[in-house]
Specification:
By secondary structure, the protein is mainly alpha-helical. The protein has helices at residues 4-15, 21-30, 53-65. The chain has one domain. Helix 1 (4-15) crosses helix 3 (53-65). The radius of gyration is 12 Å and the shape is globular.
């Protein structure tokens, strides 16, 4: 499984966007993956900074690139 930093680097290189680690964790939950719990998170059921809707598909594409989700994407593109 890819690290949050690897996912951030992939998205920055291929899409020119910065994605926050809390967005990656949110999309992991939405995708059925289990994110690590942040040590500073007060309420595990409430997200202070959820992922913006326009970034969810980009993060899921990165997950597919790193074989974290089914429906793989061509790694050469």
């Amino acid at each position: 499984m890819a690290t949050y930093q690897q996912i951030q680097s992939y998205i920055r290189k291929n899409y020119g966007y910065y994605v926050a680690t809390c967005w990656i964790a949110h999309v992991k939950e939405l995708s059925g993956l289990s994110p690590r719990r942040a040590s500073n998170r007060i309420d595990p059921k409430h997200r202070v900074h959820p992922c913006p809707k326009d970034k969810i598909e980009i993060i899921q594409t990165a997950f597919r690139h790193f074989d974290m989700l089914c429906g793989k994407v061509d790694k050469d593109s």
